[in-house]
Design brief:
Elements: H1 2-13, E1 48-51, H2 55-61, E2 67-71, E3 74-76, H3 88-94, H4 107-113, H5 116-128, H6 137-162, E4 163-165, E5 170-174, E6 180-182, E7 185-189, E8 192-197, E9 200-202, E10 210-213, E11 217-219, E12 225-228, E13 231-236, E14 239-240, E15 252-254, E16 258-260, E17 267-270, E18 274-279, E19 282-288, E20 290-292, H7 299-302, E21 307-311, E22 314-320, E23 324-325, E24 329-333, E25 336-340, H8 350-353, E26 375-377, E27 382-386, E28 389-393, E29 404-406, E30 416-420, E31 430-431, E32 434-435, H9 439-452, E33 461-463, H10 480-490, H11 497-510, H12 515-524
Parallel strand pairs: 1-2, 2-5, 3-6, 4-7, 5-8, 6-9, 7-12, 8-13, 9-14, 12-17, 13-18, 14-19, 17-20, 18-21, 19-22, 20-23, 21-24, 22-25, 23-26, 24-27, 25-28, 26-29, 27-30, 28-31, 30-33
Antiparallel strand pairs: 10-11, 15-16, 31-32
Helix pairs in contact: 3-6, 4-6, 5-6, 11-12
Bound molecules: 2-acetamido-2-deoxy-beta-D-glucopyranose (11 copies).
């Protein structure tokens, strides 16, 4: 009986997805920058689908032609074929038949199995021929030994459920400002020509992450969007964050004080990815946000590729990697960086250094929520920066020493290159409304700090501008006031243009609010 029901549920899910021929939302922006050639699915106006559950998008991406997939409402990544929303224990239970050994996996037990002191206590109990914590010590030792192996097996079950592969020539577009992929890992592997627009994107929380160091450094899987050897990808008007509400997700606390960070990146790109534009997005309240370059092991495939335009985004409460950059060309133009900064300056500020604060027992901010830096200049990156806006609160609001971080700067024959396009006639970036007199000097000071600390070598990061931008941006924003106004009005999800007109007309006929407020309403819902 149970099997019949399951079969019917599966059959219901497999009902052919039908093409949608009604009016579709009209969004404002066009692709530009390094992904300016991307057309997504827009070249085929007949292949349009509207999806609203976890099964339908999988069906739609399988079509072997250019297509546009509109997301209507919230799709839950953990929605099983029978409709239930899986919890972590379900991924364990679903792996292999009932009674399988792998069901002996338990996350707390796994953490204990990594603790050499704890394991030696169990081994002592075996030697003493006594039970351990009321269990047969020999059997318990065996169970501990299997935990990491089991972890990999049950993790594969979660991955199959929450991972979602896109195919060539696809547009994935939120129908309106309610559209969300909640707990989905969009995976773009060796694909070309993708649009991802107008969506709230919440990455899956990894049920089975591996700790790196006690208590708070973890290796979790699942980005909201992950690009591996992908090209021509445009991400616009999206909101990337830990959960639907936008609030930061506190780590789980597990004895004796583990702070389990179940998140990886929001937008991580690697392995020879190329021609990407990340524009008009909001990146909120996250720890490690944009990783552009997977590391030295990928250098050969990255060098000469990895071209990114990062324009018009609002990074709000993003603690690090906004972005982290390796082996490519990165244009960081007209973004707003808003954050709390309680870290004392790393250098160059005697007045504030005196007020150095220790993280006391009363400061309960989890370690991974603490602001670290905005722009990570790593191995052989070529970074261009022009008029960004920094808004800060917290104990050290005006500190510029963490705008940049320098890392892997060890090769002076192949230096990272930073170009600050802020000398007149260009306008400067601002910090809390005040012009940063010389962002080039900030870069130079940051490099000196890292060289002095022994973390970088002289000449491995140079300030130089070779070449020009080479493409048009949607709006030339000269001064930081324009940038702030533009980003606050353009970044994040939107109503479509046609509905915007209706909303504007409604509000003005009511005489209550201006069009600007009506737009704001659409944006923030
Ligand atoms: C466009 O989509 C239709 C399905 O609606 C498909 O049959 C056709 O092959 C596609 N055309 C191209 C040029 O990809
Ligand atoms: C994607 O589009 C390109 C260019 O239009 C075309 O050459 C290619 O065959 C398409 N691929 C698929 C899978 O439709
Ligand atoms: C989107 O979902 C809503 C609520 O289920 C439904 O009323 C509406 O018709 C859907 N829109 C489209 C285009 O399918
Ligand atoms: C749905 O499927 C999961 C996984 O197979 C199972 O554990 C759960 O009991 C099912 N729920 C219902 C209501 O059938
Ligand atoms: C490791 O186990 C010992 C003994 O049970 C315990 O005192 C210690 O807190 C544990 N450490 C960690 C990091 O779990
Ligand atoms: C503990 O388990 C082992 C292996 O199953 C078994 O050989 C041993 O007799 C058990 N010890 C006790 C005290 O039950
Ligand atoms: C998708 O596009 C890439 C790059 O153009 C190409 O190498 C790959 O074969 C395409 N995949 C399919 C399934 O057509
Ligand atoms: C990226 O765009 C440039 C310029 O259009 C082009 O030469 C290059 O081949 C593209 N890269 C990939 C991987 O398609
Ligand atoms: C930035 O985030 C904070 C905290 O989530 C919020 O209070 C603030 O309104 C956001 N800024 C803007 C401009 O929306
Ligand atoms: C930050 O700079 C602003 C503008 O110059 C100034 O009013 C404010 O007092 C400064 N805050 C601190 C804590 O130094
Ligand atoms: C930097 O990249 C080069 C490859 O070009 C590699 O050999 C070197 O180890 C990298 N340095 C670091 C610190 O990762």
């Amino acid at each position: 009986m149970k099997y019949t029901l399951l079969f019917l549920a599966a059959a219901g899910n497999a009902l052919a997805l039908t093409e949608y021929s009604g009016p579709v939302p009209k969004l404002r922006h066009k692709p530009f920058g390094f992904a300016g050639q991307a057309t997504g699915g827009s070249t085929n106006s007949s292949a349009v689908y509207v999806v609203s559950d976890a099964g339908e998008p999988r069906e739609a991406v399988a079509f072997p032609y250019a297509k546009t997939i509109h997301v209507n409402g919230t799709i839950q990544g953990n929605q099983l074929p029978n409709g239930t929303l899986a919890r972590c224990q379900d991924y364990i239970d679903m792996t292999e038949p009932p009674g399988s050994a792998v069901h002996g996996f338990n996350f707390e037990t796994y953490l204990l199995s990594l603790n050499a002191t704890y394991v030696s206590l169990v081994e002592q109990a075996i030697a003493d021929n006594t039970p351990f914590e009321g269990r047969n010590a020999t059997e318990y030792r065996t169970l501990l030994g299997h935990q990491n192996g089991y972890r990999l097996v049950v993790a594969a079950t979660q991955k199959a459920q929450v991972g979602f592969k896109l195919t060539n020539n696809t547009s994935l577009i939120g129908w309106d400002a309610n559209a969300a992929l909640n707990g989905i890992n969009l995976y773009l592997s060796s694909v070309n020509n993708i649009w991802i627009r107008n969506l709230k994107l919440v990455p899956p929380q990894d049920c089975f992450p591996a700790p790196e160091t006690f208590p708070s450094s973890w290796n979790a899987l699942y980005d909201a969007i992950g690009l591996v050897t992908a090209s021509n990808v445009w991400v616009d008007n999206c909101e990337l964050q830990d959960q639907l509400s936008g609030e930061y997700v506190e780590p789980d606390i597990i004895e004796p004080g583990w702070q389990v960070d179940r998140f990886d990146g929001l937008f991580d790109c690697e392995d020879g990815t190329d021609n990407v534009t990340f524009s008009h997005n909001i990146v909120r309240n996250h720890h490690k946000s944009l990783l552009l370059g997977g590391g030295t092991k990928e250098a050969d495939r990255d060098l000469g590729k990895m071209r990114f335009t990062i324009f018009g985004n609002h990074f709000n409460g993003s603690a690090s990697r906004n972005p982290l950059m390796r082996f490519g060309s990165f244009d960081i133009f007209s973004n707003v960086y808003e954050t709390r900064n309680d870290n004392p300056p790393r250098f160059n500020d005697a007045s504030q250094a005196g007020r150095r604060r220790r993280r006391g027992a009363l400061d309960r901010t989890p370690l991974d929520a603490v602001f670290q830096y905005h722009l990570g200049v790593y191995n052989q990156s070529r970074v261009q920066v022009q008029v960004n806006v920094f808004l800060r609160h917290g104990a050290f609001p005006n500190d510029t020493s963490r705008i940049f971080t320098i890392s892997e700067a060890t090769l002076s024959d192949r230096p990272a290159k930073v170009c600050i396009r802020e000398t007149p006639p260009h306008f400067p970036s601002t910090m809390n409304g005040v012009a940063i007199a010389s962002l080039s000097e900030v870069v130079a000071d940051t490099v000196h700090f890292f060289v002095d600390s022994g973390m970088a070598v002289d000449g491995a990061v140079v300030l130089t501008c070779d070449g020009s931008r080479g493409y048009e941006v949607p709006k030339v924003l000269e001064d930081s006031g324009d940038v702030l106004e533009y980003v606050l009005s353009e970044a994040g999800q939107v109503l479509d243009e046609t509905r915007r007109v209706e909303v504007d007309a409604m509000s003005s006929s009511n005489g209550v609010s201006s069009g600007v407020e009506a737009r704001g309403m659409g944006r923030w819902h």
